[in-house]
Amino acid sequence: MAGKLSELRVSAPASTIAGTELVEVTQSGVSKAATVAELLASQSLDGLSDVTVASAAQGAILYRASSGWVHLAAGTSGQVLTTSGAGANPSWATPSSPGTGTVTSVALSLPAELTVSGSPVTSSGTLSATWANQTAAKVLASPASSTGAPSFRALESTDLPSHSHPEAQRIGINNQTGTTYTAVLSDAGKMLRCSNSSAIALTLPTGTYTVGDVIMVRQVGAGQITASGGTISPTSPKTRAQGSVMSLHYVATDTWDASGDLA
């Protein structure tokens, strides 16, 4: 039985090769009869160049059990060959489906600016987050003068870009030459230039302006300008002389503050 074996044939398939099965051995071109036990006693498995189990399905596996070589039939599609380590026999197993399993507990932790709901999930569920209520007039920003995590805080001057806006410094002009004039909404933020040699009556309409609006009034001619309408403090303010400027500041509903070069 010395020499390299080129072919092993088992006459009938079996789940376990006991060693008494009669096999046909082809060695150096000569066919011989022997039992599996005789064959294994004289030749290691490493010396076999080809092993064929007659009529066994493709994919079958020959492995060494505790008492002999065992024929393991082919597994089904998707199965994998598993082992429990030394001293155990291999077997086919079906792996768990990807993405499936059980959850003991999954919790979600977020910054205090967010409110978490649905946490923890102990079997199935949805984790979600919403913005928590914040103090009025706060913005979400990083620290004003350093690097750091953003938070809700008051807006500071350093948060604003430094740009020059000449248009913001321009004041519109409304030139008037009559002795009476009723201001309009578009006069807010403008310089009202009144030029006449006689006295000029300026009427401020009610229910028109927004708190914070300002009208500037300049006496261009000799005629002084007197303002009226709503409540004005001081009452019936009047420009002092040619070139005088009166500022009318809308401070409350139909209420004005007058200041400047008054008579």
What structural keywords apply?
263 residues; single chain; mainly beta; Jelly Rolls; rod-shaped
Polypeptide structure, described:
With 263 residues, the chain is mainly β. Among the domains are: 7-93, no CATH class; 171-260, gp9 (Jelly Rolls), CATH 2.60.120. Helix content is 4%, strand content 34%. The protein has 2 helices and 21 strands. It has helices at residues 36-42, 166-169; strands at residues 7-10, 22-27, 30-35, 52-53, 61-64, 69-72, 80-82, 91-93, 114-117, 128-131, 139-141, 151-153, 172-176, 180-182, 190-194, 200-203, 214-219, 225-228, 231-233, 245-252, 255-260. The strands form 7 sheets. It has a 6-stranded mixed β-sheet with strand order 13-15-17-20-21-19, with no helix packed on it. The protein has a 4-stranded mixed β-sheet with strand order 3-2-1-4. Strands 14-16-18 form a 3-stranded parallel β-sheet, with no helix packed on it. A hairpin with an 8-residue loop joins strand 7 (80-82) and strand 8 (91-93). It starts with 6 loop residues before the first strand and ends with a strand. Mean pLDDT is 81; it is low at 1-7, 11-16 and 44-55.
Taking all residues together, what is the mean pLDDT?
81
- Spans of at least 5 consecutive residues whose pLDDT stays below 50 are 1-7, 11-16, 44-55
CATH class of the domain at 171-260: Mainly Beta
Broad shape: rod-shaped
What is the name of the CATH topology of the domain at 171-260? Jelly Rolls
Number of helices: 2
Please give the number of β-strands. Answer: 21
Main β sheet profile: 6 strands, mixed
Secondary-structure element order, as H and E? EEEHEEEEEEEEEHEEEEEEEEE
Q: What Rg do the Cα atoms give? A: 51 Å
Distance from N terminus to C terminus (CA atoms, Å) equals 137 Å
- Indicate the proportion of strand residues: 25-35%
Task: Estimate percent helicity.
Answer: under 10%
CATH superfamily of the domain at 171-260: gp9
Q: Pairing-aware structural class of the strands and helices?
A: mainly beta
- What is the correct CATH architecture of the domain at 171-260? Sandwich
Largest beta sheet: what is the strand line-up?
A: 13-15-17-20-21-19
